[in-house]
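I am still getting used to backbone structure tokens and would like to learn alongside you. To get us started, please write out a protein record for me. Once you have written the record down, we can walk along the chain together.
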Amino acid sequence: MDAVEAVVTQIQGLSSSAGDLTRLHTILKQAEESLHSESVRLFSALDQLDPSKHSLGFLYILEACSSGPVTKERASTLVLAISRFISSCAAEQIRLAPEKCMHLILNYLIYYKLVCTVPEAIVNAACLICAVISVCKRFKDQVLLLEAPIRGVAPMLTAIRKLQVSSEYLTTLHPEFLLLCLQAKSYKTGLSVLHDDISEVDQPRDLFLYCYYGGMICIGRKHFRKALELLHNVVTAPMSTVNAIAVEAYKKYILVFLILHGHFSTNLPKYTSSVAQRNLKNFCSPYIELANSYGTGKITELEAYVQANREKFESDNNLGLVNQVVSSMYKRNIQRLTQTYLTLSLQDIANTVQLNSAKEAEMHVLQMIQDGEIFATINQKDGMVRFHEDPEQYKSCEMIEHIDSSIQRIMMLSRKLTAMDEHISCDPLYLAKAGRERPRFDLDDYESVPQKFNI
């Protein structure tokens, strides 16, 4: 019996009880180097294992199979095997530790680097989770190699849910999943992870990419408000140096802000890092100029500027979004008319906002009515548009439920923020850093002394 067959036999025989799994884990770690050297032969071993029963061993075999160069022919086999593993693997086997181990792993292995003080079970769990993540990332690479990103969307989402401790935890697979959704144009599926309120993050880069890709998905679905929120998170996130993700996010942030609000200011919130406040606009000058041109309200000037800088916007893959900005100016100008007129002909609207024909004006007005951007009726006989006030009285059951759910969410976020503030206030590292940076004597610590005493 050669080494590969021996390992497969041990996997099949030691995957039932917790004690056997611990022993198997030790054996697999010792055989890891030999498994990698036999990566080509291991493909056949996958057929002898059931990922739901032999999850731990299947993971090690998969990791070894995907560690070396993979041809396009083998990539198809590997994609199927990884998909099967992700969808049916036993979480208790790939973790080998309670869910709370994830928090310990994050705190010790990522932030504090105190591996030597972590219990062995937690280190083992960390290694396994890293192996799962590694396999999933290689899986993403393989489906992209096969030019079939849609095949990776569902398995990657399953992997995220199995690795997540809670919906508030951002795994390193979130950005990979959103990238696959973008490549596959499966925007609706991508939205499923964007509704979670993230409060726990492993690495800053994961958060940057999650928000950036998430913003792009929301743009694809025309959920501009959510897109702006996610891109805002990238732009205002703490950073010591300007990174490429923040620059690209800022470009899209400007465009989405124009579409949503009809104006733009380069002033960022006070909590934005000084690096971002000083440098981001220098990398995005064509977009700043576009915003300035938009602010004039003159559609011809805006279109001329877009045409002059078409290559730049196209090279940034933002031309489609820029065209939506141009289209939004027509809508913005039509909205201004509702503040002045009660009734207006379609031809007058076309002339005022510089559309080519009354028919084009009608299409814009109809779309705006459908989107709830204006309230109006069109008389088809005489081509007249009558503008109305907002019919919402804010007393319907649906509106009350919406307001109530918003209040509940705000209260929950407030409680969460308070808890996080208390946790950080007690963190030894934070206290040590704050103590070093704080002046020795702070006048705010003392009550003011009256200059005069009345006797």
